[in-house]
Amino acid sequence: MMKCFAILASSLGTAAAGSLNVDNTNGKPATVTVYFIRHAESTWNEKKAKIKAKEIKKSLGGTGLFDNDVVDAPLTTKGIQQVSQLRDWWMCKNGQKTCGPCIKKALSCLLARKELEPKTHSGENADAAETGKPTSDKNDESATEACDSNAPTDLRAGNVIFGTSNLKRAIETLLIFIRAMKGAISRDSAAPKVHIVSALQELSLFGKDAKTSLLHGQVPFDGTYEDGLAKKYDGALQGYPQYGGPIVSFDGSDNFGEQNRVLKGNRFPSFCEWVHKEAKGDTPFVISGHSTWLMEFFVASFGGEGFGKDKAKDKQLNLAENILRMNGDAKKKLQLKLANASMIKFDLEVTPNQGGFFSKWWKGPVQCGVKPNSTQLIFGDWQVAGSCESSQEACGELKRLVEKTASPQSLQNTCPV
After folding, report:
1. Average pLDDT, integer, range 39-61
2. Are 282 and 347 within 8 A, CB to CB?
3. What are the φ/ψ torsions at residue 35 (nearest 5 degrees)?
4. What pTM did the predictor assign?
């Protein structure tokens, strides 16, 4: 029933907006630019780190079955600092403050970590994996932080479409980031609109960490500083003016409440419909969301089962896109994902569904996916899950991917102090 309602609501909104200029006659895709932020460290992330460090014992006799019992986890103090660094970097890139030198991070830093040291190498280009010498002159820096290239443009709050999942850690991350936008908190400007989008909600079928506390159509608070404090968003509101007017305008029309057990096959079409409904020409989106959602969306965008499953597909995509398609089970094999408070940029191609009634009913009236070779890590780092000990094959495959596609320059002297 919820799926039917979501499609109906999105279809009505799409028909009314019509602002993306998608050619519904020949199905040509329209392209929008997305800046995607993975939420900063939450209390759930903090708990996981303590469990990994054995500072906290696993639940249920060491099985860990009920470890993820944190409901709608807020950001930690460290998380607030992380996203503040992202905000300051964005302001620096937009000439709003004096900027210091940028430290460039590359995958070679990851490969130097203990958990990414395979004991043996086998297969094609094994020698290159041992020596660390690149096997190709192909220049691909998509998976490294772009310090001086591909920087964000000077965006004002009124010219950005903001979206966030309905989980508190993502909402708080976006609120902190918005303070970087010109005109975002000016007394003379309209409060920036933030869409609460249930289709961006994380999936955790057997845990509580992905459960939202927001009900259907509900927004976090009424947009004023005072109500934000009352609803316990005080950490995310640090630095906002307290003049009594609205500092943000929330739109809960795309918040359908708890979606934790909704299959990912339903949330992605709903996300595409939301993008199509809200898009306005070349206006960019700034979205705050979750790492697992992002990886699953990249797998869905490019088809197949992820990196390493289809060699032909792997060669068509850049390094960042292949990393996001790894989507491995961290308990069984190596996985890299976007680290907390990191940002990537990619182009999203939006196309009307040209299929018949059944196709539109099942997949939705609009489809979208990441445009190949458009993805770039522009701030932050990659987080390692799993290790070479658990999967020698996956680790060797990652090393070969980096050494074959990353530019020699990006693999030299890039590890941060």
Report:
1. 85
2. no
3. -105, 110
4. 0.85
